[in-house]
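2.7 Reproducibility. Because tokenized structures are sensitive to small changes in the input, we list the exact sequence used for TIGR03557 family F420-dependent LLM class oxidoreductase, including any N-terminal residues retained from the expression construct. No trimming or masking was applied before prediction.
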Amino acid sequence: MKIGYKLAAEAFGPKELVAQAERAEQAGFDFVEISDHYHPWVEEQGHSPFAWPVLGAIAARTTTLELATGVTCPTVRYHPAIIAQAAATLAVMSDGRFTLGVGAGERLNEHVVGLGFAESVVVRHDMLREALEIMRLLWKGGYQSYQGKHFQLDAARVWDLPERPPLVAVAAGGPRAARLAAEHGDGMFATEPDPSLDEAYRKHGGDGPHYAEMPLSWATDEQTAVKAAHKLARWSTGGWPVMAELPNPPSFDAASQTVTEDDIRQSMPTGPDASGILSNAQTYADAGTDHLVLQNWGPDIEGFMDFYRSELDGPLRALSPS
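Resulting structure tokens (single pass, no recycling of outputs):
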């Protein structure tokens, strides 16, 4: 099991995110993953810096730490040719340590450029498939053109290419997306411990890494951990079908007004106890996860890094499907 740390770009500014990545490398994490958003989820989070320069700074200030987007939508706010260029540049800068996580996106971030956001999940997945085809084409080198239903490419060339194209992990919340990950990606990205996703991915020929995010809230006492997660992560209890559709932070705030602290306790491990975190992590291992991303909503980042190194690193790496 490889272990990653989620850089919450909605809750911290760019300099703090770079510092957290450096601390994660020192604590022994294998990789960091950063969300690629235009807006935060709720107003209280208060941040949303541009992920790509943050990743560039992290690449320059770390040596072994792998990097990933979790995830980028290369279909509305960005044209796929732009992400092909960005990912290639970052792969060069990081000496091949970069994984491009991609997904079909959320209205929260994509509507901002005024091009709309497809109502149909089928259309969004078809757009993502074309985007993946364009990026693969550009990473071959030379001038490339493409004529698709959703995207066009006109004699474009990415000049600075890494020795090997970056690995592409495709976000999957259901069997259709898991098949897309198998057929057009190099890995799969999930946000829940659902064995059916891994089964669908493997059934359609997927043989790459299975990334998954696991939320938790660490603090030296449980109530502090619960309060922090309720403030910053209550939006997450609605599930992706809801989260993909709401347009802005006030909408998420309104949709999460009825979420209680007990709901938070039920949705993630909270407090200082390693056993609860390890027990929850086992469900991810059982679901086929081999790249586990810890998303900590607790208020003490330094304390959590020390806790990870002393209490979690070895036991998490030793996890295997039961």
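The chain has one domain: 2-317.
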